[in-house]
Write a structure and sequence with these properties.
Elements lengths: L2 H8 L5 H8 L6 E4 L3 E9 L4 E6 L5 E4 H7 E4 L4 H7 L1 H10 L1 H11 L3 E2 L1 H8 L6 H18 L2 E2 L8 E3 L6 H11 L3 H13 L8 H18 L4 H17 L12 H7 L1 H7 L5 H9 L1 H5 L3 H6 L6 H14 L3 H13 L5 H9 L11 H16 L7 H9 L3 H6 L4 H13 L5 H14 L4 H5 L10 E3 H30 L8 H26 L1 E3 L13 E7 L2 E8 L10 E3 L3 H6 L7 E4 L2 E10 L3
Helix pairs in contact: 1-2, 5-6, 9-10, 10-12, 11-12, 12-15, 15-18, 18-19, 18-20, 20-21, 21-24, 24-25, 27-28
């Protein structure tokens, strides 16, 4: 008890209990206020019943003694909040010099456990600038795991917990494993044990307990968390590889057992696993299925995601089953049934593992899949493939460079008349097609039709094309002339980059002007009125049934496509397969069989 307070107690002015609490607010003591944060007592006047405290959020705050006792809590001198007042420079130094020690101090001050959002409140702004915190924490949590000073949560809803310093590293890791509440957390704890196996190498009893716990956990979690169950079983097998003591009981669940019993679900569950873990699962297929393992593993090739299918391909090639792999890929390429991830892998590996199956048919398969995906309801599944097709500058040349003229024209026509890419992107892609196969130039200059026939389009789309032509003639071409004049003024045309760029652009603009003039001179305008909906034709709305799902497509003119609203050009591959069909007919639309349920006039 503070000497000044003792006098008040002895004089009978305050009780001993009040005196003890009042002594905790003596000058130089620390306290905590709900709104103003931590504070250090600056001075008091016991006779006047006043106290002055320097709070984090309110310096020189004068309070009545009774109110101060009611509204503040005691802080020990070594509490983190008190250190922020007294030793901020030291704490800021720990941010870079010893971040683990910084976190440990906070945990010790706050009962050994706190949520990550509270850790942020303790540090951001005062100790660490907000803009630096995220990067700092990513680094610090790795150091915390390596130091084993604290249990770092995998979810923000779980607490950061200070470890018992009396435990050895091995005991700490084993404790983490058994305290983990779900399969994912157990798998991560098991990874830590394997990484630092030297700490549990001689503890055969704990290793056996871990194996038994994994078996029980996996059996319980198979139904709802198959992917995580596989992950944990792979981890157990990794533990066996580094252990000299661990032997599975005969009744223990094997990875091959799980693959065999859950074969119909396994492909879709593997996508979240790292490639190395997926590889371990695939390597268990021969044990699980014997002579039919190649067939079984290829059945999930198109559903395991990009990492998984790459590992399956490598495994089959290493096992001498490359013929089976390439036969499978070739059949699905020509049948237009290969998925977006598989086609993307083939394109990326076109000069390596996928070289035996990479040709122009891959390009046709890509365009068919992109068009089919654009027609389907729901989220796009091929966006990464479409982006790669657009961004990979050499892909089209690798697909059609050197192939026969008709095959190149067929590919170019499908791209040019398709509804997949916006017009500017399509023009850019067609420029690559023409560069790889010059004979495809006629597809662009005549819009893919014989010039004496012309093409059909709505008056609105023709007006838009006329507006583009007007902008080209009135703005872009004159601006290009000015650019050339300015570039000429720089002198030495041989090494004048601006001049050559402007001249190249001039060629592009003049070619576009000629193309517009030719197209506008040959196009036939229509309002799609008086169309008889007896068969599918230009200006009809078609309702289709595909495997019990209803789809509605509107077939309009060459320049009218609007894929987002299911409006397609009559020149597209999709429309061409529908034209002439009647109600009740079954047609194959981009490799998918559909039945025509109804036909209506678009502008009835």
């Amino acid at each position: 008890m503070h000497p000044d307070v003792v006098k008040l107690v002895e004089a009978g002015r305050i009780s001993k209990e009040v005196g003890e609490r009042l002594s905790q607010l003596a000058p130089s003591q620390y306290c905590l206020h709900k709104n103003w944060g931590a504070g250090k007592v600056k001075s008091w006047d016991l006779s006047a019943g006043k106290i002055v405290i320097d709070f984090e959020q309110n310096e020189n705050q004068e309070m009545g003694l009774k109110l101060a006792i009611q509204k503040t809590e005691v802080l020990d001198v070594d509490h983190f909040r008190a250190q922020k007042l007294e030793s901020m420079a030291e704490l800021r130094a720990l941010v870079t010099e010893n971040p683990v020690e910084l976190v440990v101090r906070i945990l010790k001050s706050l009962g050994g456990s706190l949520k990550l959002d509270k850790l942020e409140r303790e540090l951001i702004g005062s100790v660490i600038p907000e803009k630096d915190y995220k990067k700092w924490w990513e680094s610090t949590k790795k150091q915390l795991r390596e130091s084993r000073a604290a249990v770092v949560p995998t979810k923000r809803t779980e607490p950061l917990v200070l470890r018992d310093e009396s435990l050895t590293p091995g005991e700490s890791m084993v404790s983490d494993f058994f305290e983990a509440k779900d399969l994912k957390a157990k798998a991560r704890a098991l990874e830590a044990i394997i990484k630092d196996f030297i700490h549990v190498k001689d503890n055969a009893e704990d290793q056996a307990k871990i194996a038994v716990d994994i078996d029980a956990t996996v059996r319980k979690g198979i139904k709802f968390h198959l992917g995580q169950a596989l992950d944990l079983l792979v981890g157990r097998d990794d533990l066996m590889e580094v252990s000299d003591n661990l032997v599975l009981e005969d009744s223990a669940l094997r990875l091959s057992d799980l693959i065999q019993t859950e074969s119909d679900k396994i492909g879709e569950e593997l996508g979240s696993l790292p490639a190395a873990r997926q590889r371990k699962v695939f390597e268990a297929y021969p044990v699980a299925f014997g002579d039919t393992w190649v067939k079984e593993i290829l059945s999930i090739f198109d559903v395991v995601g990009p990492r998984g299918l790459a590992e399956i391909a490598k495994l089959l090639i290493e096992k001498g089953e490359d013929v089976s792999l390439y036969t499978f890929l070739r059949q699905h390429i020509t049948g237009r049934t290969l998925g977006a991830d598989s086609l993307l892998w083939i394109c990326r590996e076109r000069k390596k593992l996928a070289e035996p199956v990479f040709d122009h048919e891959v390009g046709n398969a890509i365009l068919s899949l992109l068009e089919r995906d654009a027609m389907d309801d729901g989220p796009r599944k091929s966006s990464r493939l479409q982006s790669y097709f657009m961004d990979e500058k050499d892909l089209i040349n690798d697909l059609i460079g050197g192939v026969q003229g008709n095959e190149a024209k067929s590919f170019g026509r499908k791209l040019h008349q398709g509804q997949i890419f916006p017009e500017l992107d399509r023009k850019s892609l067609m420029a690559r097609v023409i560069k790889a196969a010059p004979e495809t130039q006629e597809l662009v200059t005549s819009d893919g039709e014989q010039s004496n026939k012309g093409i059909v389009s709505s008056w609105d789309s023709i007006d838009k094309r006329k507006a583009e032509y007007k902008d080209l003639v009135d703005n872009q071409i004159p601006q290009n002339r000015e650019d050339i004049k300015i570039a000429k003024s720089y002198g030495d045309l041989r090494e004048n980059a601006e001049y050559h760029m402007s001249k190249d652009n001039q060629k592009v603009l003049m070619r576009r002007k000629a193309d517009h003039e030719k197209a506008l001179g040959e196009v036939q305008g229509t309002d799609f009125k008086d169309v008889e909906p007896d068969t599918v034709k230009i200006g009809t709305v078609v309702t289709l049934d595909a495997d019990g799902k209803s789809k509605q497509m509107t077939i309009l003119g060459a320049w009218d496509s609007d894929p987002d609203n299911n409006v397609i050009s009559y020149l597209s591959e999709m429309a061409q397969s529908l034209l002439g069909a009647s109600v009740g007919d079954t047609v194959e639309v981009v490799t998918q069989k559909m039945t025509v349920k109804s036909i209506a006039a678009y502008n009835a």
